[in-house]
Amino acid sequence: MSSLPINPPPRLLMGPGPINADPRVLRAMSAQLVGQYDPAMTSYMNETMALYREVFRTANEQTLLIDGTSRAGIEAAIVSLVAPGDRVLVPIFGRFGHLLREIAERAGAEVHVIEREWGTVFTEAEIERAIVATKPALLAVVHGDTSTTVAQPLEGLGALCEKHGVLFYTDVTASLAGNAFAADELGLDAVTAGLQKCLGGPSGSAPATFSPRAVEVIESRKSIEAGIASSADEIAASTDRRIRSNYFDLAMIFDYWGAKRLNHHTEATSMLYGARECARLLVEEGLANAVERHRLHGTAMLAGVGGLGLTVFGDLEHRMNNVVAVEIPAAVNGDAVRGELLTDFGIEIGTSFGPLHGKVWRIGTMGYNARKDAVLTTLAALEQVLRRHGAPVVGGGGVGAAYDVYQDAGAA
Amino acid sequence: MSSLPINPPPRLLMGPGPINADPRVLRAMSAQLVGQYDPAMTSYMNETMALYREVFRTANEQTLLIDGTSRAGIEAAIVSLVAPGDRVLVPIFGRFGHLLREIAERAGAEVHVIEREWGTVFTEAEIERAIVATKPALLAVVHGDTSTTVAQPLEGLGALCEKHGVLFYTDVTASLAGNAFAADELGLDAVTAGLQKCLGGPSGSAPATFSPRAVEVIESRKSIEAGIASSADEIAASTDRRIRSNYFDLAMIFDYWGAKRLNHHTEATSMLYGARECARLLVEEGLANAVERHRLHGTAMLAGVGGLGLTVFGDLEHRMNNVVAVEIPAAVNGDAVRGELLTDFGIEIGTSFGPLHGKVWRIGTMGYNARKDAVLTTLAALEQVLRRHGAPVVGGGGVGAAYDVYQDAGAA
Predict the structure, then answer these.
(1) Contact across the interface for A202 and B246, Cβ inside 8 Å
(2) Average pLDDT of A228-254?
(3) A237 pLDDT band (50/70/90 cuts)?
(4) Residue B227 has what pLDDT?
(5) DSSP labels for B336-376?
(6) For chain B, first and last CA: distance in Å?
(7) What confidence score (pLDDT) does residue B279 get?
(8) Is the bond preceding residue B136 a cis peptide, omega within 30 degrees?
(9) Which residues carry this modification: N6-(pyridoxal phosphate)lysine (chains A, B) (predicted)?
(10) In this structure, what DSSP letter does residue A176 have?
């Protein structure tokens, strides 16, 4: 077969992720490889750990990358923390809560869930009641669920978990760097993320951090590596609570990233270069500044879609800064509008899943694309496409409302 | 903390992998992202499937990438094909046989192994006796085990598996593109690989292919996704043989790469760009030409280390073209020699694992580095370092013997 060199069309990715990678990240990823035990490589690994401690705001020694997409990080955390039969509590308020449940079930856990309508969040009291009722070993909750655009407040849950002797895990793939977050202050034992949203990188590497308490649980499930154990009996001895995955065995992954440097996988070097650069960009900007940038451009986009006359979906009080869900006007076909935006303007906005499929678009302002020109261009194009599809629209209302936000912020 | 931009030292990577990436692969990976359902992206995915059908020499529809390092591919194959209690037969002749055993054990399989001394391979009769004795559902065997440099002949095993109703799986991470291989001719049901050896890319993406018979087994273990099922009972119904991992659930991954385009993970776009370019390079060169290139430069390296007066380890009849194991002379410290080669000449050669640790170096001639200048430079530098460490060495003997090989081949 004949195929052409990679040369993707230029797109402005304003959906719920992936978004355009920061060009600095792509440049870092184009660097040549070094060996996995080269002093340059192990230094890069150590620096990456230190950088992500800043990004997660944690002192956890075990702060590293899982080689895979965001859900690789989720599965590594759950399969390493949870043994078959362990109880796990998952508050579900969107698609990714379902995913946490499913991964925990496949790990053999006894999973208990509480559910809320998509677009809303739980109160601390609701979560405490469920903890008391189910006595879980692990509370696993998504921070921001991109499927609904809202974020579960995590404040107070750490103290609850401490009080009830529960490990506290959250996935911040959708929220990290776009919304205030501090792992240690929140009392978290495990946090996982991905690069393809507010971190401005490609999917394929999952930064994660684990508290000393989580590390203790994981290390207690350590098994003897088959190539090292002296007999099959010795291996079989520990099977009961043995971590069910080799690839996601965090005890082994810690030994690879740590002083022992025991070979596990061959680190995905180019993805590490990229993940490291994502963190450097954030640390240079300052985490608080990055969150403020996402708040500003997210507010401008929110005002803009309102200014066009569109209705916003979900609990605005708990909306993430970096993505807004917009109800698709009755007059138009949502996918046709998205298609025309992509084909004629090179701009991508997102659809949604489950109960929201076909009902809302999701528009992101994330990472490299949390920028004024990206916001204004998207609103201008959306107005034109809506107009051509016969939707009622306020001419200039979107861009105008966004300009007002920037002017109020002194950013116009 | 302050950290500098990625700027790795220039290295010539002549170990057992990773090796230097082909610059074309790095350029492909530096391309900007597109959305995961962008027509450009789904075309790239389809082209990648078609390209890897050529690389694996298969007609299998289900030929795709697993997002992770090589062992992610291995775990996806095993955990999706093997249900708890299923019998798996693993012939072990090096480190990676132990890995297959361990992954199958963690998947809950009843694993039977046969073992041979590292550096040797099994006869077809030995494998048939074990199949008859253990009646496995799956035969899982590494093709080339980099830890020992030898490759298990796979010819005949497909017919054996067919005859005894066994699924036939091999991992070709170390051997693919450097040694003759044809998945369909060999009667394979599952094959996994990685980019970081003869394919000339970075670690982090695992090409894999699955026969219709394997797909049938995998689809029979399909479970209802938690976010879609109507009740917990419906999910629980299928738990017995349910695939134990979400991330490695090939049934879901097939639906993401296939016509349904059901969202599973967010494809690691930059790694896909790289994996696609690795395959394009091979298809352009021609698979047979690539194997011949690895044979030529591997032969030159083999002759060269012999010409220096060093002793080669392992069964030469079954040696892979792309890596040679060399006994460390008694007079020298193996790690000190490797360190000096790296620090003073910028050249990396490999150490080894398990029973071979400290006894042999492993020198690769793989992918982008299966080149005459890489071979000659490595031999010239190795001679100088050995000399400075007081090892007996034939002056000019390494480079001379390699030149002779090139001259005989008309390549000097």
Answers:
(1) no
(2) 74
(3) very low
(4) 53
(5) HHHHHHHHHH-EE-B---GGGTTTEEEEE--GGG-SHHHHH
(6) 52
(7) 98
(8) no
(9) 197
(10) B
CATH for the stretch A20-283: 3.40.640.10
* Closest residue, chain B, to A97 (C-alpha): B227
Side-chain half-sphere CA neighbours of A174 within 13 A: 29
The pLDDT of residue A228 is 47
CA pair distance B20, B36, nearest whole angstrom: 29
In chain A, count of helices (H) and strands (E)? 14, 14
A69 in Cβ contact with B44 (< 8 Å): no
Neighbour tally for B373: CB within 10 Å: 9
CATH class of B22-283: alpha beta
**Identity of residue B359:** K
Structure tokens at A79: 């399969």
Q: For residues A229 and A235, give the distance between their C-alpha atoms in angstroms, rounded to a whole number.
A: 7
Note whether B99 and B75 are within 8 A (CB). Answer: no
Give the contacts of B408 (CB within 8 A, at least 6 positions apart): none
* CA distances, A361 to each of A11, A389, B168 (Å): 18, 15, 46
Which pTM was predicted?
0.96
Residue A223 has pLDDT above 90, yes or no: no
Strands (DSSP E) along B283-386, which ranges?
A: 312-313, 323-327, 347-348, 360-364
Q: Of chain B residues 161-220, which have a CB less than 8 A from chain A?
A: 194, 196, 202-204
* Interface contacts A/B by beta carbons within 8 Å: 291
Tell me how far apart the terminal alpha carbons of chain A are, to the nearest angstrom: 52
CATH class of the domain whose range is B287-408: alpha beta
d(CA B293, CA B135): 40
Indicate where chain A has its CATH 3.90.1150.10 domain(s): 287-408
